[in-house]
Automatic annotation (TrEMBL):
Pfam families assigned to the protein according to its UniProt record, in alphabetical order: EPSP_synthase (PF00275)
NCBIfam families per UniProt: aroA (TIGR01356)
Name the record gives this protein: 3-phosphoshikimate 1-carboxyvinyltransferase
Active site: 338
Residues the record lists as binding phosphoenolpyruvate: 45, 120, 148, 196, 369, 410, 435
Organism: Subtercola frigoramans
Family that this chain belongs to: Belongs to the EPSP synthase family.
Residues annotated for 3-phosphoshikimate binding in this entry: 45-46, 50, 194-196, 223, 338, 365
Upper classification of the organism: Bacteria, Bacillati, Actinomycetota, Actinomycetes, Micrococcales
Enzyme class: transferase
Locations listed in the record: Cytoplasm
Keyword Transcription regulation set for record: no
Pathway named in the protein's UniProt entry: Metabolic intermediate biosynthesis; chorismate biosynthesis; chorismate from D-erythrose 4-phosphate and phosphoenolpyruvate: step 6/7
Length: 483
């Protein structure tokens, strides 16, 4: 099996501070025929980082089984450790790395700096936690992170009684001056540019002295399933959270229970693999699909048929089979903006035009995704027009070329999807996929070139495509396939 880079429990692929990985260009594999692939994916970023935060704030040790090991979760672990939380790696059932056992600190410590990288979940979830620490906590991140909106986090914490020094900025860097306690109470915010402002406050709210009564008053609230995920994670830890009306939440002050949690595979990261079946033809199966989930990636089962795919499900296996062509779509994707890059890539290869709206907020993701998708598809001969809150895509015959990724893992996924159908697409900085799926290129090459559940040896992948990846150590998967 190809988990060799993660087979030693204390191995951290990016070092403790999870710096940016190197940025190799990558020749996107061209599909040679119809796919018949079975893919097993690592854990969900959104679930892993929520459960890490809640475990750090809990009343006893918790265990995360099969968590995601990626840049975003490594940054979260490093940040919580620097606040005094103990996080131990222990062997677990996951194919992609060890479990984590999280032991909360008696008292969270300040006097530290938190590197957010480019992780929205770190920059929006940890300032409320750091306000519960004793001493100053400085937040900073990648150059691109300094462009992401943070005003709502800063102003809401100030309204709840927290002292923040932002030197007049409404972005990173800033310093939270924790005093060990947060008054809490009522606050109204505008979360129209990211649901993470809501989730960040809700995750810590039970630990505020007066709890939290949170209201959103912006003109829209994107990514509602991610807020539902936060609510479900809190409820599972016996936090009393209620939503009396849309855009309003209240949390009683109290303990957050410890938990032993199985982390589901990342269903948003399933998007490019399932998209591949539409683009290349044939079928792709994802194993381990949960029967019930709060992940927005579950919506792919309804979204992909709109493009002409057939979706079948047998126990925990979801199979997507491409149709004779690809249909254009008209979609409001406001609930699932993080699925947009993969869906736009499919639309660029469709037989008729598409319009995807409700995603103005993804201009504030890892990069301005509307501009990035339009620029890169048009560079390859496409015709994509930016709308205020979405994209209009007129499919055109595309040609090869360099696909820029802007440090955005999902831009890399989109380039890989297009490269399946278009000769000589080279994805710049494929390593940016390490943000949420360090195994992306290995799994993708396995899907295209043969056995794909991580069981294929990198040595059977054509050299030009494999050259950017370290050789696996050894081992075999559960079916006995050689590594
Ligand atoms: O809370 C979360 O885990 C996330 C919320 C969403 O953010 P936005 O509401 O900013 O889109 C999503 O796009 C992001 O990938 C993860
Ligand atoms: C928007 C995303 O990430 P983040 O958690 O950094 O906001 C994403 O993964 O698509």
């Amino acid at each position: 099996m190809l988990i060799s880079r993660y087979s030693t429990p204390d191995f951290n692929p990016y070092g403790d501070a999870a710096p940016l990985p190197p940025n190799p260009d990558w020749s996107a594999p061209r599909a040679r025929g119809r796919l018949t692939a079975v893919v097993s994916l690592p854990g969900s970023k959104s679930l892993t980082n929520r459960e890490l935060v809640l475990s750090a704030l809990a009343d006893a040790p918790s265990r995360l089984r099969s968590p995601l090991h990626s840049r975003d979760t490594t940054l979260m672990v490093a940040a919580l450790r620097s606040l005094g939380v103990t996080i131990d790696e222990v062997a677990g059932p996951g194919r992609f790395g060890p479990d984590w056992v999280i032991t909360p600190a008696d008292e969270l410590l300040g006097s530290t700096t938190i590197d957010c990288g480019l992780a929205g979940t770190v920059m929006r979830f940890l300032p409320p936690v750091s306000a519960l620490a004793l001493g100053p906590v400085m937040f900073d991140g990648d150059e691109g992170a300094r462009k992401r909106p943070m005003a709502t986090t800063i102003s809401s914490l100030r309204a709840l009684g927290v002292d923040i020094d932002s030197d007049g900025r409404s972005t990173l860097p800033f310093t939270v001056h924790g005093t060990g306690r947060v008054r809490g109470g009522a606050v109204t915010i505008d979360a129209s540019s990211s649901s993470q402002f809501v989730s960040g406050l809700l995750l810590a709210g039970a630990r505020f002295t007066d709890g939290l009564r949170l209201a959103h008053n912006g003109d829209r609230l994107p990514s509602m399933p991610h807020i539902e995920m936060t609510i479900a994670a809190l409820a599972a830890r016996a936090v009393n959270i209620e939503s009396a009306a849309a855009g309003e939440w209240s949390i009683d002050p109290g303990a957050i229970s410890a938990r032993d949690v199985d982390i589901e595979p990342d269903l948003s990261n399933a998007a490019p693999f399932l998209a591949a079946a539409l683009v290349a033809g044939g079928s792709v199966t994802i194993v381990g699909w949960p029967s019930a989930t709060t992940q927005v990636g579950d919506d792919l089962l309804d979204l992909l048929p709109l493009f002409g795919a057939e979706v079948t499900r047998e126990a925990d296996r979801v199979t997507v089979t491409g149709g004779p062509g690809i249909l254009g779509v008209t979609l409001d994707l406001s609930t699932g903006g993080e699925l947009a890059p993969a869906l736009v890539a499919i639309a660029a290869l469709a037989d008729s035009p598409s319009t995807i709206t409700g995603i103005g907020h993804i201009r504030h993701h890892e990069t301005d995704r509307l501009a990035a998708l339009a620029t890169e598809i048009n560079r390859l001969g496409g015709s994509v027009t930016e709308l205020e809150d979405g994209l209009h895509i007129e499919p055109r015959p595309l040609h090869g070329g360099l696909w820029q990724t802007y440090h955005d893992h999902r831009m890399a996924h989109a380039g890989a999807i297009i490269g399946l159908a278009v000769d000589e697409v080279v994805v710049e900085n494929i390593a940016t996929t390490a943000k949420t799926l360090p195994e992306f290129a290995e799994l993708w090459q396995g899907m295209v070139y043969g056995a794909s559940d991580g069981s294929q040896s990198i040595s059977s992948i054509p050299v030009a495509a494999a050259s950017h990846f370290p050789a696996p150590v050894s081992g075999s998967d559960e079916s006995g396939a050689p590594a």
